[in-house]
Amino acid sequence: MDIEKVNSMDFGEFVDVFGNVIERCPLIAAAVRSQRPFSDLEDLEQHFFAFTDALPQSGQEGVLRRHPDLAGRELQRGELSAESRREQSAAGLTSLGAAERLWLAEPNAQYRARFGFPFALAARLCDRAAVPRERRRS
Ligand SMILES: NC(=O)NC1NC(=O)NC1=O
């Protein structure tokens, strides 16, 4: 994507395109847009990092709370964002059987009960093909 194009996007278009860079937090994209112009896409990415890093702990926990559980209810109900669906699919979570889903539901619930937000990880990195050969366990 061309950075000139990004810098010239109006508010609605920018939030449409980048509103889910931080899962279900279009407000962050709206705030980042105010920091235009960006020198390139890496610069744009750095602004998202800087914004989320600068949030107080309560804000960062709020961001985590917006994440759907891995292989959770939203997936079953078809309510994942396109990005989450792609990520969970890359990790094989969209094709689990009922027993495997149940097996994951328990630790998900325990984690949420203990910390107050869902267990979250970059599911797409769980795709074996995305892990460099030398870092694979088996
Ligand atoms: N809970 C959690 O990690 N959710 C997710 N992670 C990810 O990469 N996509 C998700 O939906």
Automatic annotation (TrEMBL):
Residue span, Oxo-4-hydroxy-4-carboxy-5-ureidoimidazoline decarboxylase domain: 7-131
Any GO BP annotation: urate catabolic process
Pathway terms, separated by semicolons: Purine metabolism; urate degradation; (S)-allantoin from urate: step 3/3
Catalytic activities: 5-hydroxy-2-oxo-4-ureido-2,5-dihydro-1H-imidazole-5-carboxylate + H(+) = (S)-allantoin + CO2
UniProtKB keywords: Decarboxylase, Lyase, Peroxisome, Purine metabolism
Domain of life, source organism: Eukaryota
EC number: 4.1.1.97
Subcellular location, record wording: Peroxisome
Main location: other
GO cellular component terms, A-Z: peroxisome
UniProt GO MF annotations: 2-oxo-4-hydroxy-4-carboxy-5-ureidoimidazoline decarboxylase activity
Recorded family membership: Belongs to the OHCU decarboxylase family.
Function: Catalyzes the stereoselective decarboxylation of 2-oxo-4-hydroxy-4-carboxy-5-ureidoimidazoline (OHCU) to (S)-allantoin.
Cited NCBIfam families: UHCUDC (TIGR03164)
PANTHER family (alphabetical): 2-OXO-4-HYDROXY-4-CARBOXY-5-UREIDOIMIDAZOLINE DECARBOXYLASE-RELATED (PTHR43466)
The protein's name: 2-oxo-4-hydroxy-4-carboxy-5-ureidoimidazoline decarboxylase
Organism listed in the record: Physeter macrocephalus (Sperm whale)
Gene name of the record: URAD
